[in-house]
Amino acid sequence: MSSAHLMAESCPACGGSQMRVLSEPRPQYVERCSSCGSAFFHFGTAVAVSHSDQYNVEANYQRYLEAANETSCTQRFDETITRLEEMLRGVDRPAVFDIGAGGGDFLAMARDRGFRIHGNEVSQPAIDACRERHGIDLALGDDLRSLAADLPSYDAVTMWCVIAHVDDPDELLRGARMLLRPGGILFFSTPRYCAIDWIALWLRRLTFDRYRRVFDRRINHLHRRQYSRRGMEAMLRRERLMPISVEPAIGYGLHMEEYLRSIGLPSAVAKPIGRVLETGANVGLLPRNILNVYARAMESTETEFEQR
């Protein structure tokens, strides 16, 4: 089957019509929008993998927790909560809902800073870990419309590397807005197409597709999308979310040693190089690999109000 038969007719982010294939179907493939620069993984003729399956095995989730870069994550959580406090100044004990809350570290910090907290997860191991680590109970499931119908509106909704995983990102944004009160703040971070991907693409091409571990590590059946600022702003506006800021940032959620081992470097090499790279990330010398997104919820339509 040719790549032309598999290519999407338009960009899922900005709606542009100029899509180009970055990797030939195997049967999975990756394409990038020439208009906004966002990149997308497609399953092609392969059977799609549900995002809900990634962390629903206890051993997989424990490995993820062990590999997480807690120092980096804590710093990013603190910066986000501080900005939300500034944006919600005047709101007494603002309410925040964290979509895909994982082990609950962000919600625990928000609770300690005076926020009223709630969240959900698709992973039962994550829900168990959140309860054990922080005494926080999360809702199980990803039907945000149903949750919005049963819960009060929130002053803020947050997501940490969620939109890159889900089957339907537009529906995710729609559900997030329905959880928000009019004028409430949505924050999320998500992978960005950056210099790492450009280098990975050329490395793959120069080796005639024999070395593609960096390329495959960056965008795959789990991390399915890498957005650009332009593409993300178009998505937000389409879902009645007014962009406040969509900014490139440094955010490596796992230890650098873990990234390096995942692309084939032995531990003896990955450990010292990883330490150097983490130092580089701390002082802002590595590529800005994520987008930090803030948007404001516009008024819901009458139909959406009735659904709530």
Automatic annotation (TrEMBL):
InterPro entries: SAM-dependent_MTases_sf
Membrane-traversing stretches: none
Matching Gene3D superfamilies: Vaccinia Virus protein VP39
Short name of one Pfam family: Methyltransf_23
Source organism superkingdom: Bacteria
Protein name as annotated: Methyltransferase
Provenance organism: Mycolicibacterium arabiense
